[in-house]
Amino acid sequence: MMTDIEIAQSCQMLPITEVAAKAGLEADELELYGKYKAKLTSDTWARLADKPDGKLVLVTAINPTPAGEGKTTTTVGLGQAMAKLGQNAIIALREPSLGPVFGIKGGAAGGGWAQVVPMEDINLHFTGDMHAITAANNLLCAMLDNHMQQGNALGIDPRRVIFTRVLDMNDRALRNITIGLGGKANGVPREDHFMITVASEVMAILCLANDLADLKKRLGDILVAYNYAGEPVYARDLKADGAMTALLKDAIKPNLVQTLEGTPCLMHGGPFANIAHGCNSVQATKMALKLADIAITEAGFGADLGAEKFLDIKCRKAGLTPSCVVLVATVRALKYNGGVAKADLNQPNVAALEAGIVNLDAHIDNIAKFGLPVVVAINAFPTDTEEEMEFIRRHCAARGVRVALSEVFAKGGEGGKALAEEVLAVLAEDKADFHPIYELEQPLTDKIRAIATQIYGAADVNILPAAAKELANIEAMGYRDLPVCMAKTQYSLSDDAALLGRPTGFTITVRTARLAAGAGFVVCETGAIMTMPGLPKKPAAEAIDVTEDGKITGLF
């Protein structure tokens, strides 16, 4: 059996100019990054702005197992299947982070015969967007520390610096560090921290900005610290916004690639959904809606994380209105939520499936709260039994929910036709009545409670004193009307990864709160969430190599 990278390397890619023409893009709207990658110029939107929008389809999932269950694969395969059915469809995805690539998850460009290519480039340096975000973030940190070193005219309190450095790599040793040691010439000593790049506010800003001018304004609005009088200090106060924008002037342009079957894919931005807002860029999604009759995008991890943030944050800020949600489920993940250990997921177990299917029910119910129709996609694995899959079909039918088997991993677009037909049927019905689950005018604590009780199913919310104090401070600063971005484990509806299925009676604990004024939301960390992951005992990096002729091996 061929590995993902072997399948990708066997693919005969189309020149990106041909893919662009297929998508309705003009040659002078491309900035080529070799033969198979391109960025779209800033002039592209001006030509497309007045075109009517296509229909927006969101792909999300139930709570996954630690191994991941193929949401990106389903998204890619659905796009390929739409093309096989003669539909004008484009997919819009996030860019992978190097952290998971070299850590536990491996690549993030789909899998099997439903991948975006060039897979190696996408999973590694791609067009340099991640590096640009890292550099812009850390330039701001360097300018902040330099300001304190060079007289500290703004009176920044080194104990109240809230903006941290980032690195696009899993490196637990950098979570908590001390900087400025070694004498006066080396800066002001203080405690600092690293987050992974995909958790950076700069990443969120890039993904939510409408254009270069909006990007610069948002970068200037980043809250970096407080001064000794307790007053906020922003990036614009350090005069860092212009240089940061210069570093991001190319990164803000959406990237164009293709699937194994030549379907156009706009891949841009990559915030994680468990610690950030989990959606690709507004620009890429809006451009896909202008170029195609059907734009298919994904939101990270389960619907309790990525979909909630997509619908409550991204759609609200960008004026997007989804028409359909595809909810990816697997027999494996449902059995995991029924209490089966990861090592035993390949064994038939209808009883565990019956116990775990309540997790699917929770996500179906949650999507309905946003007024959106749902199609369940059963992402097929070779170890699934017909009895197990039939159980899911009967369960969905009893709930009046459309369901289809997705075999895109093994069969590409051909294996996604049944799913695509169900999605097309929903789009034809046109029954979506989209609305967020809370109003922006509500207090921040009410928004937190709405997410925790309505989406997670919590009985109560415990906001720890430090978080409550910061939430009150944020409201006093005039930011009450911002949405909330909850950082939470992806493995459970609760903030405890061990509580599987559809837990009840639990309390969500909000440990910290911080203002992301540039991004335009308030981040609340729950449970034991880590914003800088660590590598596993046997990282994926150990299997990755390159041959003498430059061919990469072992990449997923």
Task: Please describe the topology of this protein.
Blueprint: H1 4-10, H2 16-22, E1 30-32, E2 38-40, H3 44-48, E3 55-61, H4 71-84, E4 89-93, H5 98-102, E5 110-111, E6 114-117, H6 119-123, H7 129-149, E7 156-161, E8 165-167, E9 177-179, E10 190-192, E11 194-196, H8 201-208, H9 212-220, E12 223-227, E13 232-234, H10 241-248, E14 255-259, E15 264-267, H11 282-291, E16 294-298, H12 303-318, E17 324-329, H13 331-337, H14 350-369, E18 374-379, H15 386-398, E19 402-406, H16 408-411, H17 417-429, H18 444-456, E20 460-463, H19 465-476, E21 484-487, E22 507-516, E23 521-526, E24 545-546, E25 552-553
Parallel strand pairs: 3-16, 3-17, 4-15, 4-16, 8-11, 17-18, 18-19, 20-22, 21-23
Antiparallel strand pairs: 1-2, 2-14, 5-6, 6-14, 7-12, 9-10, 12-13, 14-15, 22-23, 24-25
Helix pairs in contact: 4-17, 7-8, 7-10, 9-10, 13-14, 14-15
- Sum up the overall morphology in one term: globular
Distance between the termini: 13 Å
Radius of gyration: 23 Å
- Unreliable stretches, pLDDT < 50, 5 or more residues? none
Helical residues, percent: 25-40%
Alpha-beta content class: alpha/beta
The count of helical stretches stands at 19
